[in-house]
Amino acid sequence: MENTAAVLSIGDELMLGQVSERNAPWIANALLPLGLMVREFRTVPDNEAEIARAIVELAAHAGVVVCTGGLGPTDDDLTRQALARALGGVPLCVDEEALSFLEQRFAARGMEMPEINARQALCPRGATLIANRLGTAPGIAASVNGSDVFCLPGPPNEMKAMVEESVLPRLTSGARAAVRTLAIHSCGLSESLAATRLGALMDRSANPLVGTTASAAIVSARVRGWGAGASDAAMDAAAAHIAQAWGPYVFGRGEETLAHSLGRALLDRAEKIAVAESCTGGEIGSFLTSAPGSSQWFVGGVIAYANSVKESALGVPSALIEAHGAVSGEVACAMAHGAAERCGVRFGLSTTGIAGPDGGTPTKPVGTVWIGFVDREVPESAQQGMARAFLIPGGRAEVRRRTTALAVQLARLSILGHGDLPLLWETR
After folding, report:
1. Terminus of the chain with fewer CB atoms < 10 Å: N or C?
2. What is the mean pLDDT of the chain?
C-alpha cells in the first residue's frame, strides 16, 4: 500500500464530458520517480457525500491520494467539507494566516475581498493548508486512515506548482523502490506488427516492462522499470532493443515529436521544406511550426483546397487535374513540386485526398489520400515515383490527423534515405 497512489478528480464538468481531465496523468507521472505507482484514477461529481466516500475508499488501498478540484469559493466547491467528513466529521476552522494572505492578495489588486472568498481559508481540524502562490485556493494535506491525502485546486498551473513545491517534498522521505519510465515513438507500423517485432520484450513478467500504445499513425513503446530493472543499463538495453526492432520507423523518445525529428534531419543537411495541403487544410503547417526553431527549416506553404488554387498558387496544370483527378499521384507530385519551387527550397511535401464524410466514389472511397514528396535535386521526370497512395480509416478528423503524421514521416524517411519503406494503410 505504501508504494501505491490514487488520483481523485472532482467536478460536474468532468462527469458531463464538458472538460477533459488532464491533471490526473500529469500527477501520475510526477509521482513515479518517488516509486509511487498510481493504481486507480477516479472521477466524482461536485457532491459532498460522494467525494468523502471516494477519499475514504481510495485511502484504504493507496498510501497516497491526490485530489484535484472543488476548492474554489462557490457553493459547488465542496472538497473541504468532504475531507472533513472523511476525517470523521471534524469541524472546519478558519486558518487566520490563510485568511490574511487572501485579504492581502485582493488588496494588492486594489480590491476588497468578497466575503465568499473567506471560505477558502477554512481547513478541517487536524489537517494543514498548502500555500498556493498562483491562486486564491490553498490546498489541504491530511492523513486519512494512514494514507497521505492531498487536496489541490483544479487549475493545472496552480496544481502543478503545488505538487512540485509542496507535495513531492513531503513524500520524498519514504524508502521506495525506484521506478523509471521512457517512451520510444514510431510512425508507420501497425501496433500488432510493432508488438510482434518486440517479441519477448513484451512479456508481462519482464522488468523492465514494455507495453505499446497507438494514436493516429504513431505507435509508442512505454517502458517501465523498477528496482534493478530501473538501472541505466537495463533501461538502455530495452531502448536499444526497441530501436533495433523498429528500425527507421523510430523517430524519437519522450516528448520528441515527428516535427522535431524532421527538423533535425533537415538541419543536418542545411535544407528546408515547404508544404502544399489540400485534404489536411493546414494541419501539417500547424504541426511543423509547433516545434521550437522550426523557422530554421520550414519556410511555409499553400493550402490549396480548390482546384483553381492548385493551378494558380502551385502551378498544377489544369490538364493534369482533368486527366487524373485532384486526388491522384500525379497531382500530389505537382503540388509538392510547386510548393518547393515557389518557396525556393529543395524539398516539397503535399497531401490531396478525400477526408469525408462525403465525396467518395467506388474507385476513390473516403479515406483515399495521396502524399507527394519532392526532392528538387532529383530530375523532375523521376518525381512520379515519389507519390504514395493510402486508404486511411476513421472519421474526417482522424483521416486528417493520420494523414498529417504519415506525410511528415514520409518526408523524414525520404530525406534519410528510407523512402521505400512501406507505411501503415498504404495501398501499393
Report:
1. C
2. 94
- Each residue's pLDDT tens digit, 168-197: 999 986 556 678 899 999 999 999 999 999
Give pLDDT tens digits for 314-336: 999 999 999 999 999 999 999 99
**Which residues 6+ apart lie within 8 Å of 149 measured at CB?**
55, 59, 64, 65, 66, 67, 83, 86, 141, 142, 143
| C-beta separation of 225 from 231 below 8 A | yes
pLDDT at 174: 59
Grid cell of 9 as nine digits: 478528480
- What is the C-alpha to C-alpha distance for residues 154 and 137, in angstroms, rounded to an integer? 9
Q: Which helix (DSSP H) or strand (DSSP E) does residue 141 occupy?
A: strand 139-144
Count CB neighbours of 286 within 10 A.
13
- Choosing among 3.40.350.10, 3.50.50.60, 3.90.950.20, 3.10.310.10, the CATH entry for 258-427 is 3.90.950.20
Q: CATH number for 4-171: choose from 3.40.50.300, 1.10.287.1080, 3.40.630.30, 3.40.980.10.
A: 3.40.980.10
Q: Which residue has the cell 519477448?
A: 200
Find the distance separating the first CA and the last CA of the chain, reported in whole Å: 53
Angstrom distance (rounded) from CA 254 to CA 38: 20
Closest CA to 71 of 91, 96, 34, 46: 46
User: What residues contact residue 78 under an 8 Å CB cut-off, 6+ apart?
Assistant: 46, 47, 48, 51, 70
pTM greater than the 0.85 cutoff:
no
pLDDT of residue 33: 86
